[in-house]
Amino acid sequence: xxxxxxxxxGCLLGEIGGKSQLLVLALAARFxxxxxxxxxxxxxxxxxxxxxxxxxxxxxxxxxxxxRLLFLALSLLFLGAGLLWPVKAPDPLGGWKIGAxxxxxxxxxxxxxxxxPQFLILGLATRTADPALAAIGGxxxxxxxxxxVVLLRDRLLTALPIRAIRLCGGGVLLLAxxxxxxxxxxxL
Length: 188
Fold this sequence. Notes:
transmembrane; membrane; transmembrane helix; single chain; mainly alpha; 9 helices; GDT1-like
């Protein structure tokens, strides 16, 4: 159950004010088809989370306990550093003529590769015995961060203190990652 909650909260935090939310905002404004864009978000989040969890389940048994813990620490550090990094608006995919659902699903799926939330799911799936719960929690977190942007458009992003959330969240994740890394290296 820890994997589900940590993945949910970490992925939700990792998506706040990120490239995915900006792409979702652009797609929602462009297509004005909320249902299709939300369906694309769900498919992309589920696919990325499943791939990450499957990779973690494959890698986990190959590593020792301390190595799995260090891998989780690195994923937290990566996500925390990503929150502190300035976000550039992604390509709004204006040239894609494949409809709202496919544009959202494929665009967000591609954008999610190598992103902090996907790496967190991978780290949790590697560390815990519950890769499915890590995938479910991560997908729910990503969906929970993206769907309100579709429904509320830019009102949500202007109402929230995005920069403060990203700075505080990044600091907390960096601290947690550092503590876990020191513990994995038997320095704490």
